[in-house]
Specification:
Radius of gyration: 14 Å
Number of helices: 0
Structural class: mainly beta
Distance between the termini: 40 Å
Helix content: under 10%
Number of strands: 11
Strand content: over 45%
């Protein structure tokens, strides 16, 4: 079993910052690409940022220059540093971790339960 837990969400004023964390645990053998998505009611889940095991990153145009995704070595947590936050960044943020396990070499995407980010004055 693999568990993914996001943390770090909260209420912040426009222009403020938050740092989200995505931690995976359980029977993990290796972690590949980690992605951050966000979703607001009535809308499709949107890919915000991703980082490969080699450190290559992707950012949606809407967050480029404001958000930074980073990861440590191997199974270390992945962070999403969010600066200059805007009301339109308000959403539930989800982490998706591509991982193989100690009992299967097939890479599977595991999802967390999400963390709420609210940007409001």
């Amino acid at each position: 079993q693999v568990q993914v837990v996001e943390s770090g969400g909260g209420l912040v004023q426009p222009g403020g910052s938050l740092r989200l964390s995505c931690a995976a645990s359980g029977s993990i053998f290796s972690i590949g690409t980690v992605e951050w998505y966000r979703q607001t009611p009535g809308k499709q889940r949107e890919l915000v940022a991703s980082i490969t095991s080699g450190g290559s990153t992707y950012y949606a145009d809407s967050v480029k220059g404001r958000f930074t995704i980073s990861r440590g070595y191997a199974k270390a947590p992945v962070f999403l540093q969010m600066n200059s936050l805007k009301p339109e960044d308000t959403a539930v943020y989800y982490c998706s971790v591509a991982a193989t396990t100690t009992y299967s070499s097939n890479s599977v995407n595991y999802w967390g339960q999400g963390t709420q980010v609210t940007v409001s004055s």
